[in-house]
Specification:
Number of strands: 11
Strand content: 5-15%
Shape: globular
Helix content: 40-55%
Protein name: Pyridoxal phosphate-dependent decarboxylase family protein
Radius of gyration: 24 Å
Bound molecules: pyridoxal-5'-phosphate
Family: Belongs to the group II decarboxylase family.
Cofactor: pyridoxal 5'-phosphate
Largest sheet: 7 strands, mixed
CATH class of the largest domain: Alpha Beta
Order of helices and strands: HHHHHEHEHEHEHEHEHEHHHEEHEEH
Keywords: Decarboxylase, Lyase, Pyridoxal phosphate
Structural class: alpha/beta
CATH superfamily of the largest domain: Type I PLP-dependent aspartate aminotransferase-like (Major domain)
Distance between the termini: 68 Å
InterPro entries: Aromatic_deC, PyrdxlP-dep_de-COase, PyrdxlP-dep_Trfase, PyrdxlP-dep_Trfase_major, PyrdxlP-dep_Trfase_small
Number of helices: 16
Strand order of the largest sheet: 1-7-6-5-4-2-3
Length: 474
Amino acid sequence: MTKRLFPLDMDEDTLAALNDSIDRFVRQFHRSTATAPPRWPEPAAEDLAALLKPPTEDGRAPDELLAHIATALRSGIEWSSGSIMCFVPGGGLPTAALGTYLATATNRYVGLAMLSPGAVAIEHSISNWLCREFSMPSSAIATATTGASMATLHALVAARQSLGGDFDDGVVYTTGQAHPCLRKAAFIAGLPSRALAEVPMTDTGQMDTDAAGRMIHRHREEGRRPFMIAATAGTTGMGAVDPLGEIADLADEFGLWFHVDAAYGGFFHLTETGRRELAGIERADSIVLDPHKGLFLPPGYGYLITADASRLTEVFSASQAPVLADLATNLDLPDYCDFGLELTRDWRGLRLWLPLHLHGVSVFRAVLDHHLQLAQRLYDRLAEIDGMVLWGRPALSIVPFNVRGWSEAELAGLVDRIAAEGRVLVSTSRFKGQLILRACILHFRTTAEDVDRLAETLQRFISSTGAGRSALRQ
Ligand SMILES: *Cc1c(COP(=O)(O)O)cnc(C)c1O
């Protein structure tokens, strides 16, 4: 047997040397992103085969492994680029990576307060900050999840409890623009597919609350049990904000759980404009947020704010398990494992705590406010392009658009041509069955130049083809 390159318990110098090579690699990566294309070509077959190889018995040299990772990074979308306006970009703040490093290097378990009260206090400080930001009552708690999909599942299961054990006749209200994670959550929660009632939308993609009221009323008459209404505060496709105040009124009137999916749009609440657009969100029973979108963190970090934390413990309380007995503490800190599905998880809070404390909250407010302004700028630039179809001023930072008279194949071709040019990226969605294009501004590196470059690119491609005519059909 060959000598192992690295024992599990390494001496300080070996660990430091390893740390240095990774640090050098990351610095080189950050430098390279300045000139990287927003989208890399597909990986070569032999590279992919190499990446799929299993681990070796005897270990490998760090340089070899880092070269491997470098290969992996030269494919797909370059999420570090400010020119990406496809899907919902996040950014990946370098300081969040350092927070994650600190959290995992120090190896604290934050599921139970007694086991790491100090770490849990840090985790809880973020929870409290979020609850205060959204003017939640003192009974509220914010729980970290891996993302909005997981947070939505928690909210739906907590809301479903009001139906008791037999919930086949339960109904949840939402629009066709709601994120598919709600449907997934309903399926996992054991609700039948008819439990999701699709409320009609206005021409700009918001929930039609009059129609919702009529549906709820009718379902009740039919003996079904409406229990939740799910609004979206910034739809992923259109960036539309459902009328939160009116939906809160409906929820009050009919005794429904008022859920707000603010995965994309929620953190605009940190700005004055955003607070206006999201008015009514503070009346929610649950709010879903994604720091890995609106606070520019790397993937894997969502939040669920629940106005009445006891609705979560009713479902998820875990500290009663025999192996966890005698772990109570008199400290006024939560046992987070009682508020969600995960028992053992990472000290996720530090990933957000470090950037917030290091940069200061005002930096995030300023960048988000800038994004709202950039979206208005993009809207104005697009409105000048002949043949451009728009859906009114953006409420937040997603601008949906279309070209008059173009077929779906032509629109999809436009997205590909923009990508092939390699200066900026947008993506598609659907609204009322129709393919649309959309630009989402939510990367801390995105500038006015990126936005202008997108407008210029669109102008050039559209005028060379002609709106109302066909590029492919000739
Ligand atoms: C991204 C998104 C989700 C899903 O969030 P994940 O963090 O990817 O699980 C849900 N709702 C909306 C509005 C989103 O934009």
